[in-house]
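Q: Got a minute? One more chain.
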Amino acid sequence: MNISGLRSNQSALTFNSANGTDPVTGEDAIELPIDAVGSVQVRGAAYAPEFGLSAGAVTVVETQKAGDTWDVTVNDLEPRLRRRGGEFRGIESWTRA
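A: Always. Here it is, folded:
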């Protein structure tokens, strides 16, 4: 993913004013379900101390308040098989909902 013309590890990410960037890799450290996202805003020219001196833009994600009821969805029940040399060899990934 490119933001403001730079790679994602050259940009900053915040969740509700908290830093969401892995300090070692520079990649996103948190994965949110899309249902939890209230708004997304991209700010250009992010060279500021509060954003970790990132070279690219800052993506600001605000989450929305949870409701009074539980909402459950089930996704990706089937594992993705690993294929090597034309043969299936184990499981490549399996995402829990």
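A: The CA atoms of residues 60 and 71 lie 25 Å apart.
Q: Perfect, thanks.
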